[in-house]
Amino acid sequence: MTAQILTATGVDAFVAALEEFAAEPVVASTLVTYTVIPVTGAWAGRPVRTGVSVDEVAPWPTTPPHWIHLPAEVRFASTNAGGSPMPGWVSHSRDIKGWGTARSPVAAWLAHVRGVLGGAV
Amino acid sequence: MTGDLDVRARRHLLRRDGQEDVCLATYVPSTGDQRSTAVLTDLVLPLDGERRVHGNASFAGRYVVRAASQAAAHGLGIALLHSHPQGAGWQEMSGIDRETEFSYAQVAETITGYPLVGLTVAGDAAWSARSWDCERGHRDAESVRVAGTTLRVCWNDRLRSPPASTAAQVRTVSAWGATVQADLARLRILVVGTGTVGLDVAIRLVQAGVQDVSVMDFDTVEEVNRDRLLTVTRLDAALFRSKVHVALRAMRAASTAAVPMLTRFEWSVCEPQGQLAALDYDVIFSCVDRPWPRAVLNQLAYSDLIPVIDGGLAVEPFPAGGMRNATWRAHVITPGRPCLQCNGQIDGAQVARDRAGLFDDATYIRTAGLGVPSRENVSLLAPSVTASMLGQFVSLIVAPGGLGVPDPLRFSLSTHTLEHLPAQTHAGCAYEQATGSGDRRPALTKQHPAAESARATREAMARKVRVRVRRAAQDTIEMAAATFRRMWVGS
Fold first, then answer.
1. Contacts of A7 in chain B (CB under 8 A)
2. What's chain A's Rg over C-alpha atoms?
3. A interface with B, Cβ–Cβ below 8 Å
């Protein structure tokens, strides 16, 4: 096995990967925010700004983030919610399934977030 | 270096015609608390005209500049490798070797920013190594480690001499001979987690003569631990002793080494200082059950090429009493074998939850509707996990039959069957893709409030007069007993 050369990890790698998917990432204070367009749910077809905490992205792509930060107007029928450093935003506890099995971690992450947003009411 | 890189390097350097040869490699630093390691990442083989073989080997300066520039572009250092086909064991440098390496030390350091590392491979496949300082000359390495399905450590006897075997080790040595014992006893081994299995493993290692064994755990002994923790007393629980205190006491009593070097760390390996300490070791036993510390150790196995032996016990009771089944398994996490995530032992989502502190957050657990994690543990079955993990350790180090470590092994108690689990590495495995990333590994460690709280509580209890006095009395009695043993038994 030839060791791969890791050019970037953590926040830098996450942001670079999001840029490749044209998700318009921005590191704002302790959050990395970016845009996804859900295909189902109350926000289907509309761009939704979302984010994850910088601390949770530090081990990227070794482990995924847990909390998904969203504007408070994005609501769910049931959720385990927490605070967010972004004014007017709420974080939602969501596990991603099968982490580490996809070839592209960021594609898997964006699919997870779109899936979560599909449950918005 | 990985076993794969070792094979490729030797294929180039140990020629069929018996002449010496040379090549370059890139490396990344891996920095522990006490130890610095250069983790080789890839070979940079010579192009036509860049080196000449004429009994000895010589090379053009442009070869070094090309490799150093290539390394610098990726933030890596370079290593100069050459062979002594007629040599055996750790090699000293000849005058020409010394002059050649020294003459390129400045170039390598100027271009890459890292010191030049020199390696020599002997005809018997033994590696030796040193690091160069442009002004102060070279510093010999203590060992060269080749990690794969076996862990091959080439020792510099001058810096780490084989421990003298003792009368207590006669039967252990007879199992594999003095040479294997000398190599095994020199390993620096860390046991992370000193619960049921970890404590047992640590005691077995020092009994076998391993002289440098350390234990790491932030937890405190409780009354509920007494049904399975070896040597723990009611007094230890009453005096809020740390688990590593008890472990070290048991290890000192059990050690057969002439000069045991036993250390304890009251940290979690998830804390930066815990990981830093772990990077000083050659082999790590993972005797923890939480996903986060197992993920940290899983990472070190690949990023820093420190094999990790992991295992566990799962007990399935019937709700109304009785036992459906119990299974235990063990596996070695090392290049050439799938990681803990690929073999299904950790789940990235649960690692993220654990790292976020959610498993210690009662409010979150309540609102998320999570059940209490199962904690079934059976003193009568835990030694099977220990045995399984130690079997994997012997396969890794001694490699009976030359086979090295197997796939994960799982024993099912209800059917009495041993399964070889055919785990495969996933194409997108971030752990294994980070093989050889050394200090550039993604940052899984961070502040660990639960560990800090456990230590703070223990320290607060230790300040109480009642506890302080009783601890002092216990320490005095234990010291007197140790002195008595030394005087009357000579051990």
1. 74
2. 14
3. 1-7, 9-10, 13, 55-56, 58-67, 80, 82, 93, 95-97, 99-105, 108
Compute φ and ψ for B24, nearest 5 degrees.
Answer: -115, 160
Cβ contact B428–A102 (<8 Å): yes
Round the CA-based radius of gyration of chain B to a whole number and report it: 24
Q: Give me the long-range contacts of B105-110 (CB less than 8 A, separation at least 24).
A: B105/B132, B105/B133, B105/B134, B106/B134, B107/B61, B107/B64, B107/B65, B107/B68, B108/B64, B108/B68, B108/B77, B108/B78, B108/B80, B108/B132, B109/B134
Residue among B368, B429, B431 whose CB faces A93 most closely: B368
What's the angle, vertex CA B376, arms to CA B370 and CA B379, rounded to 5? 160
B441 touches chain A (CB under 8 A): yes
How far apart are alpha carbons B440 and A12 in whole angstroms? 13
Q: Tell me how close the Cα of B334 comes to any Cα of chain A, in angstroms.
A: 12
Q: How far is B18 from chain A (nearest CA, A)?
A: 26
Cβ–Cβ below 8 Å for A6 and B428: no
CA-nearest residue to B342 within chain A is A100
Q: Is B428 on the interface with A (CB under 8 A)?
A: yes
Q: How is the beta sheet containing B36-44 ordered, strand by strand?
A: B36-44, B22-31, B77-84, B117-122, B127-133, B137-140
- The two three-digit tokens of residue B152, written as one number: 């091959």
Asked if A31 contacts A42 with a C-beta cutoff of 8 angstroms, the reply is no
Q: Name the residue with tokens 């059950």.
A: B289
- A63 to chain B: which residues are within 8 Å by CB? 295, 348, 351-352, 355, 444
Whose CA is closest to B467, among B240, B221, B245, B246?
Answer: B240
Are B349 and A99 a contacting pair at CB < 8 A? yes
Question: Is 0.90 surpassed by the pTM of this model?
Answer: yes
Q: Find tokens 């003569």 and name the residue.
A: B209
Q: How far apart are CA B296 and CA B274, in angstroms?
A: 10
Chain A residue numbers touching B290 (CB-CB < 8 A): none
Q: pLDDT (tens digit, 0 to 9) for every residue of chain B, 491 residues total?
A: 999 999 999 999 999 999 999 999 999 999 999 999 999 999 999 999 999 888 888 888 999 999 999 999 999 999 999 999 999 999 999 999 999 999 999 999 999 999 999 999 999 999 999 999 988 899 999 999 999 999 999 999 999 999 988 999 999 999 999 999 999 999 999 999 999 999 999 999 999 999 999 999 999 999 888 878 888 889 999 999 999 999 999 999 999 999 999 999 999 999 999 999 999 999 999 999 999 999 999 999 999 999 999 999 999 999 898 999 999 999 999 999 999 999 999 999 999 999 999 988 888 877 777 665 566 667 889 999 999 999 999 999 999 998 999 999 999 999 999 999 988 999 889 999 999 999 999 999 999 999 999 999 999 999 999 999 999 998 899 888 878 877 876 65
Compute the distance between CA of residue B99 and CA of residue B93 in angstroms, rounded to an integer: 9
Contact B71, B77 (CB under 8 A): yes
Task: At B342, list the tokens.
Answer: 């690929």
| Residues on chain B touching A95 (C-beta within 8 angstroms) | 349-350, 352-353
CB atoms within 10 A of CB B102: 17
Q: What are residue B214's phi and psi, to 5 degrees? A: -125, 155
